[in-house]
Amino acid sequence: MANPVQAVRKLLDRWSTQQESALGQMTGRKTARHRIAGFLKSERVEAKFFLLALAPFVPVMVSDQIGWSRGALWHTWWWLSVIWALAIIGMCFASYWRAFRRSLRRKS
């Protein structure tokens, strides 16, 4: 089986590239149809990032609904989930930043 860290990294790299491409299409094309297509693709990729960021919170929510006590394991999992979510959202916004810088260079 492949290394899961490499698989996630490859997935995030692909999504970042798709996000930058969609944002470039949204800012660099002339017709409204191409701009709207870029916006829609950007929204889909952003939703994927957000779902991946929120995935570790599912066990936390389920354990609260079941009524399990909040012990050390729960708090550890909570903080690992927060760190995971911040890292994934940071990668999403990094692609926004790169696309923004690229659009500024293109207009100069």
Automatic annotation (TrEMBL):
At the top level, the lineage of the source is: Bacteria
Entry keyword Transmembrane helix: yes
Q: Which residues cross the membrane?
A: 49-66, 78-97
Q: Which UniProt keywords apply?
A: Membrane, Transmembrane, Transmembrane helix
Name of the protein described by the UniProt record: Uncharacterized protein
